Amino acid sequence: MSVVLEVDNQVYTAEDLIPLLTQYQMLPKLAQEILIDKVIAGVECTEEENTATYSQFCQQNKLTSEEEVETWLEKQGMNREQLQNLITKRLRLDKYKEATWSDQVDAHFIKRKSQLDRVVYSLIRVEKPEVAQELYFRIKDDENTFSALAMEYSQGTEAQTGGLIGPVEIKAHQPKLAQVLTTCQPGQLIPPTRVGEWIVIVRLENYLSAKLDEPMRQRMLDELFREWLNKTTKQKVSFLNSPVTS
């Protein structure tokens, strides 16, 4: 069998690559790329789009002549048709996403909105309940500022910012803390609450409601596509552990 790859003076045949793809867990990714290529096979780009993507490719790879492009192709083991498919793949995929899921974006956003909303809040976390209780009353009675006590007592990285965290999406938080943040009002100081191994004091500073602007719309399209890809991979891809015969 002919050699298809050489790495650090070691050669590999096509037969050698299958166990390596399995070992490095690259087969699932390969299968997904095959599925993507199948569904976007009929998606076409305009002549202007083809020209623009080719120009961008040459700029990114610092290829200033057709001779340099040919050298690049030779090193990659690719032909011109494969190159064109590669450099337009993202654009064709974006077109496919738009055509397939654009009418589902609004509903998906509404479903996800509570997780996409962002918060800015102040946090102090300590291990001892009695310490948390004392700090809570010192803040509540205006004896000390939240920021000063966070810098002195909080046992997480938030101490470096005076306890201030965010803006950050609510979904990124531990479930108990996320629940606390979604049920209080800006400016509200929450009494000491156990969250995992910590006792925390929280004050919500600002609540930023997610909006379906253009970046968010693209994110919703990407999520719908990823859901489809994961589901389709489970349904249509099988990895067969067949023994290799000599």
Question: Can you give keywords for this protein?
Answer:
2 domains, 54% helix, elongated, 6 strands, 246 residues, two-stranded antiparallel ribbon, 4-stranded antiparallel β-sheet, alpha+beta, 11 helices, Chitinase A, domain 3
Low-confidence stretches: none
Sequence of secondary-structure elements: EEHHHHHHHEHHEHEEH
Radius of gyration: 27 Å
The 3D shape can be described as elongated
Number of strands: 6
Q: Report how far the terminal alpha carbons are from each other.
A: 11 Å
Roughly how much helix do the residues carry, as a percent range?
A: 40-55%
How many domains, in number, for the residues?
Answer: 2
Strand order of the largest sheet: 4-3-6-5
Q: Would you mind describing this structure in some detail?
A:
By secondary structure, the protein is of the alpha+beta class. The protein folds into two domains: 3-102 and 220-236, no CATH class; 118-208, Chitinase A, domain 3. Helix content is 54%, strand content 17%. The chain has eleven helices and six strands. The strands form two sheets. Strands 4-3-6-5 form a four-stranded antiparallel sheet, sandwiched between helices. It has a two-stranded antiparallel ribbon with strand order 1-2. The radius of gyration is 27 Å and the shape is elongated.
SSE layout and pairings?
Layout (H helix, E strand, L loop, with lengths): L2 E5 L2 E4 H10 L3 H13 L7 H14 L5 H11 L3 H8 L1 H13 L3 H12 L1 E9 L2 H12 L5 H8 L10 E6 L5 H8 L6 E7 L2 E11 L5 H23 L10
Antiparallel strand pairs: 1-2, 3-4, 3-6, 5-6
Helix pairs in contact: 2-11, 7-11
